[in-house]
Amino acid sequence: MALAFHTSISARTASVRLSQPRFQPRPAIRTSAPHKRAVETFASIEIAKGVEFDTIAREWRFKWSGDSDKASLIAAQELLDEALPSLKAVDGVTGVQRVVCGGCLDFKIITSLTADKFGDWEAAEFAPESEFLEKVKAIDGVSLVETQTFTIMPM
User: Fold this and answer.
1) What's the alpha-carbon Rg for the chain, to the nearest Å?
2) Domain count, the chain
3) Residue 104 class from Cβ within 10 Å (0-12 exposed, 13-18 middle, 19+ buried)?
């Protein structure tokens, strides 16, 4: 199946859609190492010469407040702790990262998936995204709640 990489950016969100037929994924590659079992991996997609990816990430981000001894930060972490098992259980997830900046008061959750599995999560509306975002918006001191989808690759 051919995959296409389309980006649509609004004032507050960005999304990536995988559809037909702009970029050709390379076939899966079977690899093994003496100390590991054989694994089948999804090969990368080239979106321009020299620009390849095999991982797509979904980011949930918002600002928290330092008021009340950082109560909004604490509440946000508690919500993440609740959502983490569901996020990690999504088929194709390779990692979940949390970024917190104490200077600009950012809180970001980045969930990375193999590119071949991302479309299934997108079709499921990135569950548990809507529930998580609804709860985080209700926290006093949280503002600028946004989402973004992007590719991510180690260099």
Assistant:
1) 17
2) 1
3) exposed
